[in-house]
Design a protein that fits this description.
It is built from ten helices and twelve strands. By secondary structure, the chain is α+β, with helices and mostly antiparallel strands.
């Protein structure tokens, strides 16, 4: 199971992680700086001690070191300083008896201070040797002063510097961590207050959130307000749909009930047979309204990708026309199917598209009027679209009545229809990236459904 961190924890880690990495890099840099600093300080202390010893040897004629020089050697930073001084001819003057061995100076210049590392009493030491011309007891020659110090003392000094720097950075990181942890909590307080305000809302409260929030959260609040508005609109539409559906189903149900009761009380077989036909017709009408209501409700839901398929639209419409032909021809109407000479491939829901074409033909049957003599179904291709046109020579339908004709549960002229047929066809066309439009014609009615071709 994936662990989900809070926003506070995420911000805490995002802020501190780069700072810790930077602190580690700075730590390595600080150790190297401390090492170089220790080397420079100790080399300078060796040079100061060597110069002081050389001066005292020259002044005292090789007798003893001044107290100030002794204090300098004793108080040298970081550890004990050893020394050895010889006069002209290599005569021992003062200091420790056996200095560390040394090499030759670079470039052969004997009077240049010479730093090198050696071993003294089984310990690595840092050594400085300086040579000067001096006169002691009437003898003139080279006077040599050698001073050295343990390298371990230098390393200890560098380690102390690094530890102090690490302690300082650790203290700063700890302080920063506490500041970030509590500052983030305080910064997120408006969001937590917003959460509490939403949590205490009733399920029926979908009003806009008017609570002031930080700039960074205003986009979220605006999105929530839009979502609330869409949910409220959807709930209202659903309630209206249920109310209208109940109204549409009540009339057919009442008609079926009334005909069933009259069938029971029929005085003769002839009247009983007549009422049976009327009952069957009413039941079919009720079933048709129910199917249309279910289709309209399914169209309100997201269309599953599994129902999208590529098929020949011409063949599918031909099947619809064959199914509808008996009903159309039984009314004494001419029924024509104008088919293209090739297949027209579209991608969509085969069942919904067939239902939409049936509704368009059924709309012509219900609203064409008594003077209607023919219905024509035509399919053609125009650029990247397929156009399905259902036309008749009946009562007629104007493009000016588009909003009323294509609306749910609405009719231009009263009829026994439910007012859902054209609304369903328009929704099907819209779901497939097309449109349903009312054509302006001289006689009758003509509706064209546009669908995108398969790519």
């Amino acid at each position: 199971m994936t662990r989900v961190y809070s926003l506070r924890q995420r911000l805490f880690f995002l802020i501190l992680t780069p700072l810790v990495l930077m602190a580690v890099l700075l730590g390595f840099w600080r150790v190297s700086v401390a090492q170089r600093t220790a080397e420079e300080l100790f080399d300078r202390s060796l040079l100061s001690a060597a110069l002081a010893i050389s001066r005292d040897v020259a002044i005292s004629g090789g007798d003893a070191l001044l107290p100030s020089t002794s204090d300098l050697i004793r108080d040298a930073a970081g550890g004990e300083v050893f020394y050895h001084a010889t006069g002209p001819g290599g005569i021992y003057v003062t200091g420790y008896a056996y200095p560390p061995p040394h090499g030759e100076p670079e470039g052969g210049d004997l009077y240049v201070p010479l730093y090198f590392e050696a071993t003294y009493r089984a310990e690595p030491v840092r050594v400085l040797r300086i040579m000067e011309r001096a006169t002691i007891d009437g003898m003139t020659g080279n006077s040599t002063v050698t001073v050295w110090q343990r390298i371990s003392d230098r390393n200890e000094f560098a380690s102390q510097l690094a530890k102090r720097a690490a302690a300082l950075m650790g203290g700063l990181l700890l302080t920063l961590a506490l500041v970030v942890w509590f500052a983030v909590a305080r910064g997120l307080r408006p969001l937590l207050d917003l959460q509490d305000a939403i949590a205490i809302r009733s399920p029926d409260d979908l009003s806009r959130i008017k609570r002031p929030v930080p700039i960074e959260a205003q986009g979220i609040v605006a999105t929530l307000n839009r979502l609330f508005a869409r949910v409220e609109e959807s709930i209202s539409a659903h309630q209206v749909f249920i109310s209208n559906a109940a109204h549409q189903l009540r009339n057919p149900a009442a008609a079926v009930q009334s005909m069933a009761e009259s069938l029971r009380d029929a005085p003769s077989d002839e009247i009983r047979n007549q009422r049976i036909e009327e009952l069957v017709t009413a039941a079919r009408g009720a079933a048709r309204v129910t199917d249309q209501l279910l289709s309209m409700d399914r169209l309100r839901q997201p269309m599953p990708s599994t129902r999208m398929e590529q098929f020949d639209l011409a063949a599918e419409i031909q099947n619809v026309c064959e199914d509808m032909a008996p009903d159309v021809l039984s009314r004494g109407l001419a029924f024509e199917w104008v088919a293209p000479d090739r297949s027209i491939e579209v991608c969509g829901d085969r069942i919904f598209i067939a239902e939409a074409v049936k509704n368009l033909i059924d709309n012509a049957l219900k609203h064409g009027g008594a003077e209607m003599t023919s219905i024509t179904v035509a399919l053609r291709q125009q650029d990247e679209t397929a156009l399905i046109t259902i036309s008749d020579d009946g009562a007629g339908l104007s493009p000016d009545d588009t909003e009323l004709a294509l609306g749910r549960f609405s009719q231009v002229q009263p009829s026994d229809g439910s007012g859902l047929g054209l609304a369903i066809a328009a929704s099907v066309a819209e779901r497939h990236g097309g449109t349903l439009s009312i054509d302006r014609v001289a006689m009758g009615a003509s509706l064209t459904m546009e669908l995108m071709l398969a790519t």
